[in-house]
């Protein structure tokens, strides 16, 4: 009986630590995605100055909102004078509900990977310099209410 109690005492903190590591890995990957996009964006008004890749997760960055699990749910970069591409990796922000980049100078095509964002409610792309067709994968976005 004493052995089982000791094993539980050791196992519980280990499991808790493992959950924290898994959670922070997910948050770091979201931060990595957003920062890799940030590197490609021209930001003349320095709107993205708080996007610091050394932080544990991007939830403290301006224009980024997260849920209680520290997963990115919203990115608001509308009317910020930015230019650059939309990157396919944005499709890996699995809990993203809102992506607003309207009234900027984003260029290139709309990544088909955005069609993987099954929780997406709002996608603001208007008044940019985007080209090419709207990807058919956006038809998979059953929660989308605003395009």
UniProtKB/TrEMBL annotation:
It comes from the Eukaryota. Keywords: Leucine-rich repeat, Repeat, Signal. SUPFAM superfamilies: L domain-like. Residues 1-27 form the signal peptide. The keyword Repeat applies. Coiled coil: none annotated. Gene3D superfamilies: Ribonuclease Inhibitor. Residues 28-67 form the Leucine-rich repeat-containing N-terminal plant-type domain. InterPro entries: Leu-rich_rpt, LRR_dom_sf, LRR_N_plant-typ. The keyword Repeat applies. This is Leucine-rich repeat-containing N-terminal plant-type domain-containing protein. It comes from Penstemon davidsonii.
């Amino acid at each position: 009986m004493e052995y089982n109690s000791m094993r539980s005492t050791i196992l519980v903190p280990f499991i808790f630590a493992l959950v924290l590591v898994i959670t922070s890995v997910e948050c770091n990957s979201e931060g990595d995605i957003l920062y890799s996009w940030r590197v490609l964006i021209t930001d003349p008004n320095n709107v993205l100055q708080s996007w610091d890749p050394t932080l544990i997760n991007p939830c403290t960055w301006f224009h980024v909102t997260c849920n209680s699990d520290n997963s990115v749910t919203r990115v608001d970069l509308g009317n910020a004078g930015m230019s650059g591409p939309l990157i396919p990796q944005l499709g890996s922000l699995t809990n993203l509900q809102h992506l607003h980049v309207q009234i900027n100078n984003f260029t290139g095509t709309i990544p088909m990977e955005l069609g993987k964002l099954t929780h997406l409610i709002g996608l603001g792309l208007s008044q940019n310099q985007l080209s090419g067709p709207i990807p058919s994968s956006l038809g998979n976005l059953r929660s989308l209410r605003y395009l």
